[in-house]
Amino acid sequence: MSGLESYVNNTVSIITADGRNFVGTLKGFDQTVNVILDESHERVYSMTAGIEQVVLGLHIIRGDNIAIIGQLDESVDSKLDFSAIPFGMCDSLEEKFGAWELFDELWEDGALDSAAINRDAPYTERLRLCRDTKDNAKARTLRTKGNELFHPKVKRYIEALKCYNESIAFSVKGSEDRAIAFANRSMICYELQRYEECLHNIRLARESNYPERLAPKLTKREEDAKKALMLRNEQSDSIKCQNKSKQCDSELTLSYNPCETVPQVAECLELSESERFGRYVITNRNLNAGDVVIIEQPFSRLLRDIYRCVRCEFCHRECIFTLIPCESCTVAMYCTNECMEKAYKRYHNYECPIIRDIWRIFTKLPAMSLRTVTTAISAFDDDLQAMSDHLRSLDKTKVNAFTMDWTQANARDIYDTVHVLETNQRYRDRKDRMGRVFYATIIFKLLTERTELSNICTMNADACELLMELLLRHTQTVPVNMHSLHYMEYQPEQRVYEIENHASACFPILSMLNHSCAPNVTRITLRDGRCAVIVTRPISKGGQLYDNYGMHHCLLSRKERQTALLKQYRFICECEACVNDYPLYHELPSIDTSRYGMIDAPALHAELVLHQEKKAAELMPKLRRYLNDIGQQYPRSETCSCQELFLRAFQILHMSSSESAEYWKYCNP
Ligand SMILES: C[S@@+](CC[C@H](N)C(=O)[O-])C[C@H]1O[C@@H](n2cnc3c(N)ncnc32)[C@H](O)[C@@H]1O
User: Fold this and answer.
1) Structural domains in the chain?
2) What is the Å distance from ligand 1's center to 442 Cα?
3) pTM over 0.80
4) Residues with CB under 6 A from ligand 1
């Protein structure tokens, strides 16, 4: 009671026993802690619609329904954009006023010529650029939020874990705040029966100066976890064996002999070039639906910021229970020290002082341009002069990812194939070009103010020029060539799995595939982060392999597709679907089912969304056979739905899926 008095006339957050969250000004309370809130609202959390704020005004909450009541830190809270927070992920770092908004403002004012090119323009003030620092006060606020979500009457463990992880990222190394966040994470691991991770976090807490006064609690949890683990180990040998065989089964290989010098590509594929298509990929033999023809590793990749407290920033593995923080920035977290060191060597040494600002003011496209440039610089062992000499003497017309000997290639050779990706520079209008100069200039400014590139660029004009050129080049190659990486996420409300995009990547070979609104191949992200290209309907010898850039004729009208493709990819699509104006899915004609038989697509779909590997493996050969029988007849509704089902079965067997389904049974919905 005496605690509550100090909250009167302050903003409080209340979590009720049924998991609801109310925020408002505490006007008063009685002896049974019935409370009166003024100017209040409820925060309604939804898996699909983010966080909605429902205004309630003057509101009374019964004391026996209150689980937690705490004062809100308004300075932190006011910065949150609830409409933009997907509930299943972390808060996005992107702010409402960013580089794009500043550019637009300057463009409208006609002030752009000087502002965009002048590196002394007022970016710092207008975009509130500032160095990222550890902050124990923020770590405490996040930990408190985690504690509220952990409360036995709330039990939102996954969200609590993300708060603790972010608290760990903000905390200073060796601080009590770091130690307590690790200990709190161990408490959730215990609740979710992740006893090994529980013990690991207890060790991390102790190594990080865990306070003596709280030690007995930790020791008790340690004993309990050890006991539970011992019990489980006695029962689990058979489960371990089953898991092992599952992993071996899912190894995917090319359907044909790999090319001797390009082992990631089937030997039947070739690169061609024409005025109309630029470079494009053809096959010198007939291909069947289900054939795997490319399996490629990315040159560079970038985890989306909303996964920063869920996955390792380097290898992208989901490891929400054991992430460890970069000791300088508050964004990057890793699964192991090894990943942390690799990331640092490959790109994070340049990105660490600027990455928080990058995510705050930009979207993933400029962030991916930065990642491509930093990865490229490390490919040249951070020697910008050597890089400049190499690239200035490079004959770009001779670089060919399909004829280069990848078995002998070093990191510099591989970068050559990225350097020559399409920029579409000649098709960009003035505003577009100026926008990219503007973004590249901001990134350049951040890099040369805050990283070791500062010294290099001050002393070496060549290096300075090269850095700006690379940033400008890749702000253009990225929107044309970047690929999304996916995994399957469990949706507790519908109890099904959905495809989610967790990262972006640059694949120089995959980037040679052109688009069709009626594609004949598809891509899937494999568990190890590589990407596979799979044929989805028969392709005759000499035919072109067509990917789809997100504009399928089943889903969008020709006008919508062509407008979007022209805007992002700068070409007028004249694919078979555009030329023949193929209908949307629900208007497609049927095949002759009396001749080819039929599949019950809705029933198969209902089975596949349950995500059972056995079922998917059983269906794959049937779907593949059917696709090869009917695939020449296009467009037909059966062909399109069978392609979807086939892809889904493939994804179940070869794509990674989130472990979260396992945890939801311990949480309140
Ligand atoms: C990922 S690249 C594909 C490879 C590209 N042709 C090259 O030479 O690097 C995407 C670019 O290829 C071109 N492109 C892709 N599909 C096309 C199509 N169906 N017709 C004409 N150009 C296409 C566009 O310039 C597009 O921006």
Assistant:
1) 5-84 (2.30.30.100), 136-233 (1.25.40.10), 269-296+509-654 (2.170.270.10), 324-483 (no CATH)
2) 29
3) yes
4) 276-280, 422, 424, 480-481, 511-512, 514-516, 569-571, 573, 575
Quote the pLDDT of residue 669: 62
What are the pLDDT digits (tens) for 347-389? 999 999 999 999 999 999 999 999 999 999 999 999 999 999 9
Checking if the pLDDT of 273 tops 50, the result is: yes
What's CA 290's distance to the chain center, in Å? Answer: 27
Question: Which residues fall within 8 angstroms of residue 125, CB to CB, at 6 or more apart?
Answer: none
Cβ atoms of residues 267 and 501 within 8 Å? no
Distance from residue 427's CA to the centre of ligand 1 (Å): 12
The answer, yes or no, to whether residue 585 has pLDDT greater than 60, is: yes
Q: Of the residues 514, 548, 553, which should be mutated to test ligand 1's pocket, given the most ligand atoms within 8 Å of the CB? A: 514
Instruction: Say how many residues make up the chain.
Output: 669
Q: What is the ipTM of this complex?
A: 1.00
What pLDDT score does 84 carry? 43
Angle among Cα 386, 390, 396 to the nearest 5 degrees reads 155
Residue pLDDT, tens place only, 327-353:
999 999 999 999 999 999 999 999 999
Q: What angle do helix axes 215-235 and 176-191 make, rounded to 10 degrees?
A: 30
Tell me how many helices (H) and strands (E) the chain has. 27, 17
Tell me the torsion sign for CA atoms 302, 304, 305, 308: negative
Q: Residue 325 is inside which H or E element, if any?
A: strand 324-325
CA of 200 to the centre of ligand 1 (A): 49
Q: Please give the radius of gyration of the chain, using alpha carbons only, rounded to the nearest integer.
A: 27
